[in-house]
Amino acid sequence: MKTTQEKAVEIAKLIMDGKGDDVVLLNVSELNSWTDYFVIATVTSSAQCQGLCKQIKDYIKQNDLEIHTTNRKSPDGDDWNLIDLGVIVVHLMSEQARSFYDLEKLWHAGEKIDL
Length: 115
Description:
Blueprint: H1 4-17, E1 21-27, E2 37-42, H2 46-62, E3 69-72, E4 80-84, E5 88-93, H3 95-101, H4 103-106, E6 111-112
Parallel strand pairs: 2-5
Antiparallel strand pairs: 1-2, 1-6, 3-4, 4-5
């Protein structure tokens, strides 16, 4: 049985394989009570984002995970797509959104996991 961290690493690597840029995995379990890991990545187009979302959803089905929420922070879905798996939250963001929201700075106390 895979640990939550192993699953988070696999999702991060899946995004890297799909050409997601600057993929970061943060352990935030000590900082809040609602999730353990953030996977944050920059995407360059809506087509890339949609493809990555499909790959992540396929992974979820195969690895005993469940989607709690998917959310778009903009109507066209190009800026920030969030996939909430409970223990893992995936953030697929445009370069502009990632720079603006700067989640790594906001959650700087989280442990960065080497990929």
